[in-house]
Write a structure and sequence with these properties.
Helices cover 35% and strands 13% of the residues. The chain is of the alpha/beta class. The protein has three domains: 274 residues, 3-Layer(aba) Sandwich (Rossmann fold), CATH 3.40.50; 34 residues, no CATH class; 155 residues, Glucose Oxidase, domain 1 (3-Layer(bba) Sandwich). The strands form three sheets. An eight-stranded mixed sheet has the order 7-8-12-11-10-9-13-14. Helix 18 links the parallel strand 10 and strand 11. It is globular, with a radius of gyration of 24 Å. The two termini are 26 Å apart.
Length: 566
């Protein structure tokens, strides 16, 4: 067994003395005699409430590593709490991925266990783990327990958007709104809806990077700690067998992930994260693959925001193994997993215990639920929509554009602008470069005057993203974005926009010459960033159809052994 860590701890010279002696603070001599060193990289942080219990999870991983004959080292990374980070956690996803990658490279690590939970911590660790390409396993934090308000279940995020609209409509008091605030977050763990965190946690399992069931076990559940313990044992064996990240995640794995996302009613954010992951691994995989592979997959899981139940219900109904079993031959069963079984073998044990929560393919929630890719003169490089979260009657729609130049412009004018319910709300300046960071503001609020009339959905279009907990007929990730010279920059209030989601069409009734003229005459945005990481991000970020990754991070570059420093 050829270990990276032996380049630090295996030498009988001055350098070996330095590396070992500084680590011998209560550790026996024999732990440096060829044991695999496992880096437990954790995104624990008091500023990331979803990840607040990962310190306990880390202790259970350590127990398993010690049992299996490894040496565990807990190493903190940066952390991204979706509810607190400004201007948007997505701006820092790529930075955190670099921290993960470089933490693996610079330290005497033979294998990785990555502890994450909140949306961008899981995404960043997927990308950083892919780039380091060591034997790697994940333990996500799991969803929080279901909250309730006055006898009704509360869905994290989803009910926030719903309640805030009801307050603006005058059908819910501010006092009741604040009262519900204290009922929503009952425990440790990430959002209990099928938002981005839950989607990615399930996809980590579906990609084969975690042990079965860990995608959905609630955060406070003792079975998650048991899974962490078993992960610690298993990662040592993966190091001995030299099973790297790239041995697990292949083109077949990514194809499975697209179909799993559709069956779950998963977050649209999965699109940018899976595209970026494919880029890091050098796997040919494009935006159109989401259409080809997932558009006709049925929605099997009846969870908010596309349905009615929550993640605790999903786990008790059978979790991801049950969904994999229901998908059956739609999946590539030969795809590998860190457990040593194929995904097909793992799915064979899946059972559905509640048919209200996890439906059969014969009786799905919705027959075709996959994320739909849109193209046309308004989105030459593509845009996306989530039909399962949209109003069916609006999926084919034509209306007058009402344009907002920025988030600030939107907030200033949304309740005073001249707008009717058949109009199309357009927001620009919120793409990867234009914001910068591509925030989750794509589910534009409905104007108050229309809310008071009972309107709860409109067609909305932007170069932004949307929270996985959100819903509505919302077109997202328009590429190229307005700030990169995309046609979105040419749209003016009064232009006619046509959406035909079933046929994948998004068009604006503006001639190409006129559109080009408008774009030429549009002032170039003045970037707010002139230094540091934000400046680097703006200079190197790619568009949404490339996963909004940094251009210099594309392609695989496995962790070797760095030069000696003494």
């Amino acid at each position: 067994m050829d270990l990276r860590s032996s380049a630090w701890f295996g030498k009988l010279d001055r350098d070996g003395f330095i590396h070992r002696s500084w680590m011998k603070r209560g550790l026996p001599d024999d732990v440096f005699d060829g044991r695999p060193v496992i880096g437990i990289l954790t995104s624990w942080s008091e500023a990331a409430p979803c990840n607040l219990h990962l310190d306990t999870v880390a202790e259970h991983v350590k127990r398993g590593v010690w049992e299996a004959g490894g040496l565990p080292l807990v190493i903190p990374t940066m952390s991204l709490g979706e509810s607190l980070v400004r201007p948007t956690a997505m701006l820092y996803r790529n930075l955190m991925s670099m921290v993960v990658e470089e933490s693996a490279r610079m330290n005497p690590i033979d294998g990785l266990v990555l502890l994450c939970g909140c949306d961008k911590t899981t995404a960043a660790m997927l990308l950083g783990g892919a780039s380091a390409d060591l034997p790697t396993m994940f333990v996500t934090g799991g969803p929080m327990l279901s909250g309730s308000y006055r006898g009704r279940p509360l869905g994290s995020g989803t009910d926030v958007w719903k309640f805030s609209e009801e307050v603006r409509a005058g059908t819910m008091s501010v006092q009741d709104f604040i009262a519900a605030e204290s009922c929503m977050t009952r425990s440790a763990g990430f959002c209990n809806t099928m938002g981005t965190a839950s989607t990615l946690s399930c996809l980590v399992e579906g990609l084969g990077l975690s042990l079965p069931e860990l995608g959905a076990i609630p955060g406070p559940d003792a079975r998650r700690l048991r899974g962490a313990h078993l992960t610690g044992r298993r990662i040592v064996q993966l190091v001995k067998d030299d099973v790297k990240f790239s041995s697990i995640v292949t083109r077949a794995s990514l194809e499975n992930a697209v179909r799993i996302t559709a069956a779950l009613g998963g977050s649209t954010n999965a699109v940018v994260h899976l595209l970026a992951l494919a880029g890091r691994l050098g796997i040919p995989f494009a935006l159109d693959d989401f259409d080809k592979l997932g558009a006709d997959v049925p929605l099997l899981v009846d969870l908010k925001p596309s349905g009615q139940f929550l993640m605790e219900d999903f786990f008790e109904a059978g979790g991801l193994p049950a969904v994999l079993a229901e998908l059956g031959e739609l999946l590539n069963g030969e795809a590998a997993t860190v457990s040593g079984e194929s995904i097909g073998e793992s799915a064979a044990g899946g059972k559905v215990w509640n048919r209200e929560v996890i439906r059969s393919r014969a009786e799905p929630v919705t027959p075709s639920a996959g994320i739909r890719v849109l193209r046309g003169n308004l989105a030459v490089d593509g845009a996306i929509i989530k039909p399962s979260a949209a109003t069916p009657s609006l999926l084919v729609h034509q209306g007058r554009a009402v344009v907002f130049e920025s988030v600030e412009d939107l907030h200033a004018r949304i309740d005073t602008v001249d707008v009717e319910e058949n109009d199309v709300l357009v927001l620009r300046g919120c793409g990867p470069r234009g914001y910068p960071g591509m925030p989750e503001v794509g589910n534009l609020p409905i104007p108050q005057r229309l809310l008071e009339k009972g309107v709860r959905d409109m067609v909305r279009i932007s170069d932004a993203r949307m929270s996985g907990t959100a819903y509505g007929t919302v077109v997202l990730h328009v590429a190229p974005e307005a700030a990169a010279g995309g046609a979105l920059a040419a749209v003016r209030t009064g232009d006619t926009i046509r959406l035909d989601a079933p046929h994948g069409v998004l068009e604006v009734d503006v001639h190409a010459d006129e559109s080009a003229r408008r774009i030429r005459e549009t002032p170039t945005p003045a970037w707010a960033a002139d230094r540091g990481y934000e400046r680097m991000y703006v200079d190197h970020v790619m568009q949404a159809d490339r996963g909004a990754d940094l251009d210099f991070l594309v392609g695989s570059s496995p962790a070797g052994v760095p030069r000696e420093s003494h």
